[in-house]
Amino acid sequence: MNSSSPSELKWIRSILVVTGLMNLLWGIAIIFFPRILLEWIQLSVNNDGFLWRSSGFMSLAMGFAYLLASKNANKYWVIVLIGLFLKILMPINFWLAYRSGEMEFSIFELAAALHLIWVLPFAAILYRIYLQSYIEDKEIIELTGKDIETALHIYSTNKGRTIYEASESSPVLLVFLRHFGCTFCREALSYITTHKKQIESNGAKIILAHMVSTDEAIQALETYQLSDIEQVSDQESFLYKSFNLKRGRFNQLFGWQVWMRGIYLGWIKKHGIGAIQGDQYQMPGVFLIDKGKVVKKYIHELASDVPPYLELATINSD
């Protein structure tokens, strides 16, 4: 699903193509014609050749990267983010070199001009990409209509039965995961591995929902001895949206609490981080479903939240 109009895509593509071509031309000039370039811009040629060539090769690499990102900025947003950092940091680097007497002020002026003119355009692109994910999120939720019962009848697990059928046999603890590279997802899987028997002894059958293919999920789950667990693949995130699980806002995904706990889990508890598999913005959740009805639920406020799995899996007797 792509809600961007052609005009919106055009301005993003144009910015990335222009800056890509400029980087390529600048890199070629520095690498192959350094003296001609410096004389043309009336700068002295008393600088280290190796450093100039290195900056030229970096400019070439970023030029190709920007042209790649121009094909699909939503997919290659990391390139734009790295580019934004470079546009901010490079003038600072040249300023420090000027202050230490390593280069002339005119070189700093040129470097600052060539980099800083792209800061606002790159920031605008990243902001548009950020908004796009939530525009699509809203559209999908409106499309699914948050119709949980229909979704339970549509989505089948790797065991060949629908989630609804599974909930008819026994209550289902449906655990919606974030992407498998997420340290919080890895913590959840580790917890489920350790407490699976206890959770299911409380009366609920665990089913994992994820955003990759079944084969990819089995490969990821083997690390946690969960390759045989019942699961459902939802690569388009429609099942997530049926349960009103949205993409997280900035604070939910990157707030200081999330960072602190992420560092603790990733490095100290050694859950680590991995490649993004699925929607990196998607928030998780846990639902207890009995005979096609949601009887308990836990929707994360922060990506780092820990659901009370055992409590959620307990079947209350009336």
Describe the model.
The chain has 14 helices and 5 strands. The protein has 318 residues and is of the alpha/beta class. The chain folds into 2 domains: 6-135, no CATH class; 146-313, Glutaredoxin, CATH 3.40.30. It has a 5-stranded mixed sheet, with helices on both faces. Helix 10 links the parallel strand 2 (205-210) and strand 3. Helix 4 (77-99) runs antiparallel to helix 5 (105-116) and helix 4 runs antiparallel to helix 6 (119-144). The chain is elongated and about 80 Å long. The model has no long low-confidence stretch (mean pLDDT 87).
What are the salient characteristics of this protein?
single chain, 318 residues, alpha/beta, Glutaredoxin, 2 domains, 5-stranded mixed sheet, 9% strand
Low-confidence stretches: none
End-to-end distance? 44 Å
Overall number of strands: 5
CATH class of the largest domain reads Alpha Beta
**Overall spatial form:** elongated
Radius of gyration: 25 Å
- CATH topology assignment of the largest domain: Glutaredoxin
pLDDT averaged over residues: 87
Total domain modules:
2
Number of H- or I-type helical stretches: 14
Proportion of strand residues: 5-15%
The secondary structure category is alpha/beta
What is the succession of H and E elements?
HHHHHHHHEHEHEHHHEEH
Identify the strand order in the major beta sheet.
3-2-1-4-5
CATH superfamily of the largest domain: Glutaredoxin
Q: Biggest sheet, in brief?
A: 5 strands, mixed
Oligomer: single chain
CATH architecture of the largest domain: 3-Layer(aba) Sandwich
Helical residue percent band: 55-70%
